[in-house]
Design goal:
Layout lengths: L8 H7 L6 E5 L25 H11 L3 E5 L5 H13 L3 E6 L8 H6 L7 E6 L12 H12 L3 E4 L6 H9 L6 E3 L15 H8 L5 E5 L13 H15 L4 E3 L12 H11 L5 H16 L10
Parallel strand pairs: 1-2, 2-3, 3-4, 4-5, 5-6, 6-7, 7-8
Helix pairs in contact: 2-9, 6-7, 7-8
């Protein structure tokens, strides 16, 4: 099966002249305890606002040229707020918002974003849903509407849901999917299987990409090392190759285990032996291609 989302060689040769770094996954929020109940006592440092000004300082320190902001709440209000943030902060090149894919009025909801040029995709927080959620006919009807509108879908699941995600993808060969945080392998427990086998199977579908993000929060927060993460990064590379990996931070969630620049330094160390073209793909060009971001990129002062 050919990959319908493969970048043309002429496009890639032009893009390779641009050494861009894109954070393909971060969040912004106004903190409200009732709406962020998943932030428990162990994550108490996240119980505050994380807004564009602070993000911008992090980006400058880490030398990141653009970002994709991803929803953290299942809220249309938040989606519209993220789009407002993106309009006022050019460095946010795309927004992955939320919409209720199973809703009967989904078309009306999506059409309300017609003027939102930076809405590039949709995500639901499936990791907390009951088994079988991705098999629901109304959910798959919603995914077909995303395909018709050229919107991507971020798959946010736990490792146990990989088989279900594979069934989803098989129903939508022309939809662009990206797996968030590599489906959250159990790094803190040193478990590779069955996550590895299931990830490799999902990756056989060429319309699925994968974000190397969020891994430090699946490891031991105080004692993780590059060496402890390498087996999981190795599997991601084996499964998706440099052409379908997107580097992201999962900021500010990553802060419970890693400073922002520290995460990017770790990725730079891991990918140090890859060739220059592969590094450019993973750290920026794949995100630009997958999310169809603006080619006019650069840090805004």
């Amino acid at each position: 099966m050919n990959n319908p989302f493969q970048t043309s060689s002429s496009h890639k040769s032009t893009m390779s002249l641009l050494p861009l770094r894109i954070d393909a996954h971060h969040h912004l929020w106004h903190y409200h305890p009732a709406e962020f109940s998943w932030i428990d006592e162990d994550m108490a440092t996240l119980r505050r606002d994380f807004l564009v000004n602070e993000l911008h300082r992090e980006l400058l320190t880490a030398k990141i040229d653009g970002t994709v902001a991803v929803q953290a709440r299942e809220s249309l209000v938040e989606t519209r707020w993220l789009l407002e943030c993106a309009r006022s902060a050019p460095i946010i090149r795309g927004v992955v918002g939320w919409a209720p894919l199973g809703a009967n009025n989904l078309a009306e909801i999506l059409n309300s974003f017609d003027d939102a040029a930076k809405l590039v995709g949709i995500r639901e927080i499936v990791q907390t849903k009951p088994d079988g959620y991705l098999d629901r006919s109304e959910f798959n009807r919603g995914v077909r509407q995303l395909t018709s509108l050229s919107l991507t879908y971020d798959i946010l699941i736990q490792a146990r849901q990989l088989i279900e995600a594979t069934r989803l993808v098989d129903q939508h060969p022309y939809q662009r999917f990206v797996l968030d945080h590599a489906a959250k392998p159990k790094i803190s427990k040193d478990e590779l299987e069955p996550w590895k086998t299931r990830l490799l199977e999902l990756a056989r579908r060429p319309n699925v990409f994968c974000k190397v993000s969020g891994l430090v929060t699946e490891a031991n927060w105080q004692h993780w090392t590059l060496e402890s993460l390498c087996p999981y990064l190795d599997v991601c590379v084996e499964a998706f190759g440099p052409n379908r990996l997107l580097a992201g931070s999962d900021w500010p969630v990553c802060l419970v285990a890693s400073a922002y620049s520290q995460w990017w330094d770790l990725l730079a160390r891991y990918f140090a032996d890859f060739n220059q073209d592969e590094v450019r793909l993973i750290f920026g060009e794949n995100a630009i291609e997958f999310y169809r971001l603006s080619a006019d990129l650069g840090v805004s002062s």
